[in-house]
Amino acid sequence: MKKSMIFAAPLLMLALPGCVRTVASVVTAPVRAGAQVADWTTTSQDEADRNYGRKMREKEAREGREVTKAEKARRKQCREAGYRDCD
């Protein structure tokens, strides 16, 4: 019996850290899942800034297209009215 304990003890020592790691990961899994859900549901300041910048660039592009369209319409009306220098 004593001989079998001498051989079994090192094997148990090798298996024990794996069990502890597994138990630790099982225990911390709900906490990690909760943190991930909180991260998905909230918007960080960096994300908010990025989204705001994107909206502003889209707005500026839209306004630029509208200005170009209005200028083109103004020049067309000017030419149709009979003026030569409409640019």
Features:
single chain, 87 residues, mainly alpha
- Counting DSSP H or I runs of 4 or more residues, the number of helices is 2
H and E string: HH
Please count the beta strands (DSSP E, at least 2 residues each): 0
The major β-sheet equals: none
Give the low-pLDDT segments: none
- Mean pLDDT, to the nearest integer, reads 80
Our measurement of the CA-to-CA distance between the termini, rounded to an integer number of angstroms, reads 105 Å
Radius of gyration: 35 Å
Structural class: mainly alpha
Strand content: under 5%
Global outline: rod-shaped
Oligomeric state of the chains in view: single chain
| Helical residues, percent | over 70%
State the gist of this model.
The protein contains 2 helices and no strands. The chain has helices spanning 2-41, 45-80.
Task: Report what the structure shows.
- The chain is mainly α.
- Helices cover 87% and strands 0% of the residues.
- The chain has two helices and no strands.
- The chain has helices spanning 2-41, 45-80.
- The radius of gyration is 35 Å and the shape is rod-shaped.
